[in-house]
Design goal:
Layout: H1 6-21, H2 30-49, H3 55-64, H4 75-85, H5 101-114, H6 118-121, H7 125-132, H8 160-176, H9 188-212
């Protein structure tokens, strides 16, 4: 019998259950596989154009790059972003982990644009679960104002394209690092929706990049 701490045991149990339920990855939902492949293309774009800083900063720089400003005009992208903004904030890991502050601000940016009722969002199962554990939820928060000029990676959370991509990147991390791999249990429906929206967003971005390139 292997000896683990309680937290390690929980994680190992979750991973083992995911391995078995997916048939060692062979039964992943199609949207998971497509998101994985599409992100690889997008990864190639921002890594080719921006070579310094953390990965999220390179994604942020892409969103602030004037050469790609018209990408946000895509109706397909905006529709998926609107649906994403209507969800509870994406946490930094499994279960009820709190979202990063820039992810909270990114959600606020999008919800303000799309006029989404925050009270309705905070009635979700995810938010109520966080509230019961005395975790901070978005309702009643004071949000910082956007800076006068938007030039630094930290500023991307205040822009619509930047906010959308930063949240999608968090979904990507949770999937790639094993935190959205469960295709079983109470989190599955939410995980599948987030991955499907992430897949749609990245596909729309890649389609717009393709339109900008000479053929």
């Amino acid at each position: 019998m292997l000896n683990f701490t309680p937290d390690q045991q929980q994680t190992m149990d979750d991973i083992t259950e995911a391995i078995r339920s997916t048939g060692y990855g062979g039964a992943w939902p199609p949207s998971y596989n497509k998101f994985f492949r599409l992100w690889g293309f997008f990864n190639g774009v921002y890594n080719a154009l921006y070579t310094d800083g953390a990965e999220w900063q390179r994604i942020a720089r892409f969103s602030l790059d004037n050469r790609f400003a018209q990408i946000w005009n895509s109706p397909k992208l905006q529709n998926s972003a609107r649906r994403l903004a209507s969800q509870a904030c994406v946490g930094d890991g499994r279960n009820d982990y709190l979202p990063l502050q820039r992810i909270r601000i990114a959600f606020h940016t999008m919800r303000s644009e799309f006029k989404i009722n925050l009270e309705t969002v905070c009635e979700s199962t995810k938010c109520q679960s966080r509230r019961l554990k005395n975790m901070q939820i978005c309702l009643g928060q004071n949000w910082p104002n956007a800076p006068q000029t938007l030039v630094n990676p930290d500023d991307a959370q205040f822009t619509l394209l930047g906010a959308t991509l930063l949240i999608t990147y968090q979904i990507r991390n949770n999937l790639f690092h094993g935190s959205k791999d469960e295709i079983h249990g109470p989190e599955y429906a939410r995980n599948q929706l987030l991955v499907e929206l992430g897949e749609q967003i990245v596909e729309a971005v890649l389609e717009e990049i393709d339109k900008l390139m000479p053929h």
